[in-house]
Amino acid sequence: MKPGWKLAAGGALFGAFAYASAIEPIWIDTVHLDLYAPRLPEAYDGYTIYQISDLHTSSLGRRERKVIDILDSLPEADLVVLTGDLIHTQRGIEPVLELAKSIKSKDGIYAIFGNSEYKNGVRPLQFAAKLHDNGIRVLLNQHVILPRGESEIVLAGVEDPYSDHDDLELALTGVPDDVFKLVLMHSPDGIAEAVVRGVDLVLSGHTHGGQIKFPVIGAPITHSVMGTRMSSGYYQGHRLRTVVGIRPGRTQLYVTRGIGISGIGMRFLCRPEFTTLTLHRGIPHARRR
């Protein structure tokens, strides 16, 4: 290789590294998704949900402040859900609580735990108590009823399937079959059981979309048993059946790329994501605005 080409290649490599480590990790993509479900009660048509996932917070840095800016710019949601890996170590607890002060939600703020809440010295039950004291309810294989007039939907939260803390059967105990079920599940690894139990909608994260993606081949690593077949995005019908190997019925799944980073401190062609969903009654499909 000629010296000029070597210099150009080196410059391109350095530029890609700088972009992946300093620019893309804080370049948050606000995804607006309209999602249609046939069993959604009419009273919830237009119901808005903000999903915040995989913050991996250790301090109130630039990325966290950008999340606050996004929250301040949006109208109050009907529901806000935090789908796990909120902190990286215990040092992240206070910054997460500070960020949460910007969250406004008519029906409350609900969280589940991911694998990060069970390592690096984090005490899950103490963290759950701290969140509760600050207006955030953690669903540990539990469910709540979200009423609207004479109608209601169920919000259930399971602990992390990736670290084998999940119990969807327990989370849905006592829930009638004919009620619309929204399940928070940190990792999409438990989606097959959600299909079997007739869950209407599952919101997950954990994969970071792969965090590092390459042209053509996509994300080589997703930290999911589903591999690259379920790295991020919307899954329903044939696409979901291809991954889980069974008919998905009415179940729909959305996997966010999440906001933070873990492992290698970079993102490449896989921007962090703040997700807003608007639920509608109708034939199952999703449409990004």
Task: Give your account of this protein's structure.
This protein has helices at 3-23, 62-73, 93-100, 124-133, 168-171, 191-196, 237-244, and strands at residues 29-37, 47-52, 79-83, 109-112, 136-138, 142-148, 151-158, 181-185, 201-204, 233-235, 252-255, 273-281, 285-288. With 289 residues, it is of the alpha/beta class. It has a single domain, classed as Purple Acid Phosphatase, chain A, domain 2 (4-Layer Sandwich). Helix 5 (168-171) links the parallel strand 7 (151-158) and strand 8. Helix 2 (62-73) packs parallel to helix 3 (93-100). The chain is globular.
Write the layout of secondary structure elements.
Layout: H1 3-23, E1 29-37, E2 47-52, H2 62-73, E3 79-83, H3 93-100, E4 109-112, H4 124-133, E5 136-138, E6 142-148, E7 151-158, H5 168-171, E8 181-185, H6 191-196, E9 201-204, E10 233-235, H7 237-244, E11 252-255, E12 273-281, E13 285-288
Parallel strand pairs: 1-12, 2-3, 3-4, 4-5, 7-8, 8-9, 9-11
Antiparallel strand pairs: 1-13, 2-12, 6-7, 10-11
